[in-house]
Amino acid sequence: MTTMSNVIKLGEAEAAYLCEREENDYFDRKSARIKPVQVQDIAVAFANAEGGTVVIGIEDSGTSTESKSLERWVGRSHIEEYNEIIQTVAGLNPGIDFQHSFLYHGEGYANRYVLKLDVRRSLKVHETSKGSVLLRRGAQSITLKGSQIPDLMRAKGMISEEDTYLPSVSPERIVDGKNLADFLASLPLTDKEPLSFVLQENLVESKSLAPTVAAVLLFAENPSALMPKQCALRIVRYDSSHEEIERDKLTGDMHSIEAPLQKLITDAFRKLKEVIARSECWTPEGLKSPMYPDDALYEVLVNSVLHRDYGISDNVLISVYRNRIEFRSPGRLPGFVTTENIQHARFSRNPKLVRLLSKYTNAPNKDLGEGINTVYERMQQAGFVDPVFIDDGANLHVILKRRPREDSADVITRFIHRHGSINNRQAIDLLALESADQATAIFSKLREQGTIAREDEKQTGTRVRWILGK
């Protein structure tokens, strides 16, 4: 249905931008001569990815005979001419969520309409009328095949690896194991018979009794020895602050933790605290181990283990640097969760793991969905900047940085007041910087303001020490 609200007049600058904008993961531009089924391909690819916009009625730069970008605006004379395209996209089953509008610009182009389709990201995996599953990557729509389709379904949260059966694992390892017996003993259940419990919870296949991934992760003595894919947690420490990983700065402080989930989380947190304690850097109080809020560390660790994609053969990795701690969890963010709405969105990739783990007496997760908010609050209370979340399409990275929220000048002058002087190494640690160049830039600015001065003008390079200016 077309209304005046979706017939939109653009200014010349807006129209030119659509003609010139670079095509990417979120934007595509096509000629009005395109076949409707080809538009359907683009719409499906956007819905399966992060959503996007396609405008139809603008010629590619390679086909235009004119140098001006607006000459590429070659739409239809009547909006009804786009009906077949709209109906083709709307006819998908299951349907995708999209809106359409008609654009025109200028007096001379009032009868030249461009169709704009805004496609929203979907929680489902969609296919075209021909049965093809496409995904937007860069400026093209890629056809997924084989295992790529269930991988996408897992990424969207439609299916979870936790429900996959492992026929190679003997059910006795779970049903007759001490971990399951101890777990059941702590629950207020009338029937504490292990086999009844795992059948009722769909933790084993009803006929073969093959355990699921969730059963192995929760109750096997050592899940890493039974799982076909890596599922442990590693902790490493670098004597560096740089963003780029420096292999020569990797210390011998490297640990691999393998255990059922509840114990893995407990052991990993204890080991992480030990590793941080062995790290030494400059703080406002002097040269000592850095301090991070325990609640923030614990919540990020729990989320990295609970909400990772166990369909990916990789371990959770925690890297401790002089200025930050980075958590890498295998798998992209699930469902509709993004790095922008992660504080408020609630979507569990492994709901069974989350639910059963919350039943432990000392549950590592309270199943209240407030973990990420706790991380923000504790980092703010400690005077540090907010955590950083990066979804690179394969992994989720969470970075807790010791960078102070307060002004750098105040941090530096207060340190000098307390310790008499400051150098580059101390400033890098105090401000959680990545390089000496950043510290030098800050010192130069404060020197120009007269806030600080060199202790000795003969000092150069890393030997320069700064004192309060007069």
TrEMBL record:
InterPro entries: RecG_C_sf, Schlafen_AlbA_2_dom, Schlafen_AlbA_2_dom_sf. Pfam families: HATPase_c_4, SLFN_AlbA_2. GO terms for molecular function: DNA binding. Keywords: DNA-binding. Residues 23-143 form the Schlafen AlbA-2 domain. It comes from the Bacteria. This is DNA-binding protein. It comes from Herbaspirillum robiniae. The lineage of its organism: Bacteria, Pseudomonadati, Pseudomonadota, Betaproteobacteria, Burkholderiales.
